[in-house]
Specification:
Elements (H helix, E strand, L loop, with lengths): L5 E5 L3 H13 L3 E5 L2 H10 L4 E5 L7 H9 L6 E5 L4 H9 L4 E4 L4 H16 L8 E4 L2 E4 L4 E4 L2 E3 L3 H11 L6 E2 H7 L6 H15 L9 E4 L3 E4 L3
Parallel strand pairs: 1-2, 1-3, 3-4, 4-5
Antiparallel strand pairs: 6-7, 7-8, 8-9, 10-12, 11-12
Helix pairs in contact: 6-8
Length: about 230
C-alpha cells in the first residue's frame, strides 16, 4: 500500500487501546481508537478505515453486535479480539461476519502478522490461480477471489474466499475438511470450516438447507458442483 493502512482499534480497556495505538503506529500503521461501539460508530461516520480491530467483550453493544451491524452495509475487514478462549465464542465471531480473531492475551507481533495477511488478501489482484467458475447464476473469479451475481459483487470474508477458492480449483472433486483447514487464512479447524460452509451456502444457495452447489460428502468433506 502506498499509504499506511488506517486501523480503527475498538476496546473499552484504555490501557490496551493506548498500547496498541503506540505499537501499531510504530509498525507504520495509521491508528484511530474508540472506547466503545458508540464511539466507533462516530469514527466510522467520519473516516474510512482499511481494517478494524474490535474487542468482543465490551459493555453495552458488544463486538459481535457491532460486527453484525457493520456487515449490513460495510465491507471493511474485521479482526476480533476475545478474552475468552472457548471455540464457540470464536465461532460466533466468524458467524457474525468477522474475517479473523485473536484470543487475549496475544503477542503484538502476531496481531501485526494477522493484520497484514488480511490486508494482503484485500489488496491482492494477482494470485497464482486464475480462471472463473459459474454456478447458480454466480461467477467466482479465482484470481481476484471475487464472487459476482450478474453485475453485483457478493462480499466474502477472507475465510470464505479461501474456502470457495479451494473448492473451485477442483470442481466436482470432494475436498476433505483437513485439506480445507490447511488452506484457511485463519486458525481454522473442522468446526470452523463447517461454519464457513454454512455462511457460504446462505450467500449462494436458494435453499441453504438443501444445497445444490456446495454439497456435503459424508465421511469426506465438501464439493462444489458447477453448472
Amino acid at each position: 500500500m502506498d499509504e499506511p493502512a488506517h486501523i480503527l482499534v475498538v476496546d473499552d480497556d484504555k490501557r490496551l487501546r493506548e498500547l496498541l495505538r503506540k505499537y501499531l503506529s510504530d509498525q507504520n500503521f495509521r491508528v484511530t481508537t474508540a472506547g466503545d461501539a458508540g464511539d466507533a460508530r462516530q469514527k466510522l461516520s467520519a473516516f474510512t478505515f482499511d481494517i478494524i480491530v474490535l474487542d468482543i467483550m465490551m459493555p453495552g453493544e458488544n463486538g459481535l453486535e457491532l460486527t453484525s451491524w457493520l456487515r449490513s452495509s460495510n465491507k471493511v475487514p474485521i479482526l476480533l479480539l476475545s478474552a475468552m478462549g472457548e471455540s464457540e465464542h470464536r465461532i460466533s465471531g466468524l458467524e457474525s461476519g468477522a474475517d479473523d480473531y485473536l484470543s487475549k492475551p496475544f503477542e503484538p507481533r502476531e496481531l501485526v502478522l494477522r493484520l497484514n495477511a488480511i490486508l494482503r488478501r484485500v489488496e491482492s489482484t494477482a494470485p497464482p490461480v486464475s480462471g472463473e467458475i459459474n454456478f447458480g447464476g454466480f461467477c467466482f473469479d479465482l484470481a481476484r477471489e471475487e464472487l459476482r451475481q450478474n453485475d453485483e459483487y457478493i462480499r466474502l470474508t477472507a475465510a470464505e474466499a479461501s474456502l470457495l477458492k479451494a473448492l473451485a480449483r477442483s470442481p466436482g472433486v470432494p475436498i476433505s475438511r483437513e485439506a480445507l483447514t490447511s488452506e484457511s487464512p485463519i486458525n481454522a479447524n473442522s468446526r470452523t470450516i463447517d461454519v464457513q460452509v454454512t455462511r457460504l451456502r446462505r450467500k449462494i444457495e436458494t435453499d441453504p438447507k438443501y444445497p445444490r452447489y456446495l454439497q456435503t460428502v459424508r465421511g469426506t468433506g465438501y464439493v462444489l458442483i458447477p453448472d
